[in-house]
Amino acid sequence: MKKFLIAFIILAVVGGVTWFFLLRPETISQETLTQDFEEHRQAYEDIAYYLTKKDITTEIKDIPMAGKQYDGVVYEDTDEYRAFMEAIYVIMEEDHDAIISDGKNVEFVYHSTGGRFRKLYGSVIYNGENQVKGKVTVPLTTNGWHLYIAQG
After folding, report:
1. Using one digit for the tens of pLDDT, what is the confidence trace for 53-79?
2. What angle do CA 121, 92, 109 make, to 5 degrees?
3. Pairing with 8, which of 17, 30, 85, 114 sits 20 to 30 Å away (CA)?
């Protein structure tokens, strides 16, 4: 009986760990990303506006330090820059891994939380057009915002 109990405990621990690393459900979905976009829409728009207006190529992976150059974004003493920085704080405090810009397209990449076999990658993309080249997206709005979800 004691051996059976020990075997059962070991099996439960191994099963739980296996589930966590391989089969854990993903929190990224079209509904959750759309809801997050609507909740923080002004922050998304401030960032996209600033990066596309200034034609800035950058990859922001954490919250920048105020008053210093950061990933191609040069400090300015303007209202646009302050709105941009405040928006960065709002977006990067959420489940985002990066904000990637090539000066024309801005991609807000979400952190994936699923297990190895159920991992999804999601992003909100702004390009001001009806389509995003090379990606199958769902339009979030009619003015160039798109939702992209891929399994990987």
Report:
1. 999 999 988 876 655 566 778 888 889
2. 20
3. 114
Show Cβ contacts of residue 84 under 8 Å, excluding neighbours closer than 6 positions.
46, 47, 49, 50, 51, 73
Structure tokens at 39: 């909740």
Number of helices (H), then strands (E), belonging to the chain: the values are: 4, 6
Q: What is the pTM of this model?
A: 0.81
Tokens representing 19 are 């589930």
> What's CA 123's distance to the chain center, in Å?
5
* Cβ neighbours of residue 73 closer than 8 Å, sequence gap 6 or more: 56, 58, 60, 64, 84
d(CA 84, CA 46): 6
Name the one residue in this structure whose structure tokens are 């990606």.
135
- Closest Cα partner for 147 from 33, 52, 54? 33
Give residue-wise pLDDT tens across range 14-55: 888 887 777 777 777 888 888 989 999 999 999 999 999 999
- CA–CA dist 150, 136 (Å, integer): 9
Give the model's pLDDT for residue 139. 86
More confident residue, 115 or 106: 106
